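Q: How would the structure tokens look for this protein?
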Amino acid sequence: MSNDISGINTGRSQHTTDRQTNGVGRDGSKSDTRTTTSGTGSQDKVVLTDMAARLKSLEQKLAQQPEVDQSHVNRVRDAIHRGEYRVNPDRVADKMIGFEQDF
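A: Here is the predicted structure in token form.
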């Protein structure tokens, strides 16, 4: 048995409109809200606040960091030249785990 699907949604409005608004929440985080309204009057709403706020915060922190900490580079370089530079594997592992947890 087959079903004729060529007439589905005939007589119904297929027109949809999108409206996007940007705002600031109570906690100061920015939000991006997109509301879609179909011809039947129903609304779908998507709010992108948590991830957008986290990404914005990380972006601001990164922008405040200097590109290179030259004094640290000089200290490490001098320690390597003197043969005194030692790698602490536990500290390296802790830093790697902390980096992964930020994401």
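The mean pLDDT is 75.

The helical segments are 50-64, 70-82, 89-101.

Upvote if useful.
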